[in-house]
Amino acid sequence: MSEHEEVHQDSIKSQYYFRALICFAATGTLASQLKIDSLDLLSVAVMFICLIYIYAAYKISQWAGIDRLNKTTQWLGCIDAGLVGVVLTLSNFSLLPSILFVTMVQFNGLLNGGTQKWIRDNFALLAGIALCALIRAPQWVLSTQLEISLASLIGISTYFCASALYTYSQVNTLRKENDILDREKNTFKMRAYKLSRYLSPPVWSAINEGKDTSQQTERKRLTIFFSDIKDFSQLSEELEAETLTEILNTYLKEMSKIVDQYGGTIDKFMGDGIMVIFGDSDSKGIKHDSIRCVSMAIAMRKRMKVLQQQWQNQGIKRRMQIRMGINTGYCTVGTFGTSHHLDYTVLGTHVNLASRLESAASPNEILLTHETWSLCRDTIMCRDKGEISVKGFSHPIKVYSVVGLRKEMGKNQSYFEHSLDGFSMHLDMDKVRNYDRDRAIAVLEKAASALKEKV
Question: How many whole angstroms separate alpha carbon 155 and alpha carbon 149?
Fold first, then answer.
């Protein structure tokens, strides 16, 4: 038997027990006023109907099924109240039974159905009184016969006690189930948190919102970042597996913290390689995305120097250095795969180019394409490295090497680059030869003097 069927049977049984108490109380009230010498056939008939009704109502509830149980229960509740009205009329509205039965109708209506059931039950109560009054007019004596009052009191008191006990049992059961649900909820939260670390933010957000992301893709202008550790495969041959695992996990953990700090989305880990995208979620514009991405790469390079010192203190002789490549352009982002396995990632020529730049970069170098450089050059200082040939691309690629954040250069700044309408300057002091220095200064002074004299 399923859980729904068990609940259905429990509901039918509880209604059967309470309806039996009501009918027995009504039957007892009518039986208390019967006299052997002058038997009231109408009262006997109503008593017989009440007893038959107990079994008939039970069978009707079973026949109704789960889908129609609520509606059937409402109709049976109205019949219950109508029978109470008939019994009150036949008992000539004896004072105590009338108070008890009317109170029971109010209690049952409000407890089991709220305002609407209370209104329906009271209407049925009045309808039962009116129907019985048409057949036999009550004497309206408000009798206080002890026998009638005692039978009603015993029946109704039993009903209220049983209702209180049943309500307490239900509340206690609900409390236990609520405790179980709270524990399951906490377990689900913990499992969801662990699962979220394996999924990208867009996928996790779609799952929480109940969206179907399967086979959905779109074109977005993104900034793509790739990095890896130079000669990591050789390092894996030199170190024990446990030591290598500890080093790799430390490296990925520290780099992930920096990615989160700058608002990037980790697309995947590929051994020692990391792929990060900017602009897929929480984008504030492609210019802002590119600046965040390059700033993240600079922070990673700085952090790597700290890690190198830590590993050297641990006896790791080989100096581990990272290479990074960044590109900006339109990519296809979404879920790819089959119905059994899906992967949320980014595809396209610009993704491949960022990966090629990472491979072409020197140790501790960050290479940018012209598209990324043009977006972040006001904030990031770069050196023009000219054009390089990249595998998979027929034309040379213009690249720039990141020096650092302009605001952090200070007096040690060795690279100057600025562009205005009618003005463009590109000065790399590290490339200016000593014998060309005086000539460069003279050119700058001459240009500055002419600019000052311009009206």
Answer: 10
Q: Does residue 147 carry a pLDDT above 60?
A: no
Tens of pLDDT along 149-190?
566 666 667 766 766 776 777 778 888 888 888 888 888 888
Cβ atoms 20, 61 nearer than 8 A: no
Q: What is the pLDDT of residue 203?
A: 66
Half-sphere exposure of 173 (CA within 13 A, CB side): 7
Going by the DSSP 8-state scheme, the letter that residue 362 receives in this structure is P
Superfamily of domain 217-413: Nucleotide cyclase, GGDEF domain (3.30.70.1230)
Please name the residue that has the structure tokens 């008890």.
100
Domain edges within the chain = 3-185, 217-413
Taking residues 298-311, report their average pLDDT.
88
Q: Are 425 and 418 in contact (CB under 8 A)?
A: yes
CA distances from 190 to 52, 184, 186 (A): 56, 10, 6
In the predicted model, is pLDDT for residue 296 greater than 80?
A: yes
Q: What is the DSSP string of 91-142?
A: TTT-HHHHHHHHHHHHHHHHHHHHHHHHHHHHHHHHHHHHHHHHHS------
Q: What is the DSSP letter of 412?
A: G
